[in-house]
Amino acid sequence: MYLQPANGYVNTTRMIIGDRLRLLRETKKLSQGDIEKRTGLLRCYISRVENGHTVPAIETLEKLARAMEIPLYQLFYDGEEPPELPNLPKRKSADDIAWGSKGKEARFLGRMRRLLGRLEEPDRRLLLYMAQKMANR
């Protein structure tokens, strides 16, 4: 049975995760007290999660998965093997994105650093001010 909130929408997510946690715990033949000892979470909190009265944070789900000695994905996925990952485009690293991280830009940036090192502080501030004005055009 799912609770229906006042807005008319049925929020089954918290019930499903609670049901899944209970099923996995019982499959492992663990009591809520066992989970309490392994995680430090109060038994009443574990009960509230399993009964859908509380939505656990991801950190709490990680604790529960560790306590039941299962990978985190099994809380959300019912198969024996991990789900197949979609073929997503490779994300660029910070080094790929950062200007001046390689090539001609890196050489230019290195030369600027050496030259700025020779300037006095007031001249560096003036140069920075001018660069900010030029960048804002």
Structure in a nutshell:
55% of the residues lie in helices and 0% in strands. It is an all-alpha fold.
Describe this structure as you would to a colleague.
This protein is mainly α and 137 residues long. Helices cover 55% and strands 0% of the residues. Among the domains are: 13-75, 434 Repressor (Amino-terminal Domain); 104-135. The chain is built from seven helices and no strands. The longest helix has 16 residues, at 103-118.
> Kindly, what is the distance between the CA atoms of the first and last residues, rounded to a whole number of angstroms?
62 Å
Using the alpha-carbon principal axes, give the shape.
Answer: elongated
Q: For the report, how would you describe the main beta sheet? A: none
Helix content: 55-70%
CATH class of one domain: Mainly Alpha
Assembly state (oligomeric): single chain
Using the 3D structure, state the CATH architecture of one domain: Orthogonal Bundle
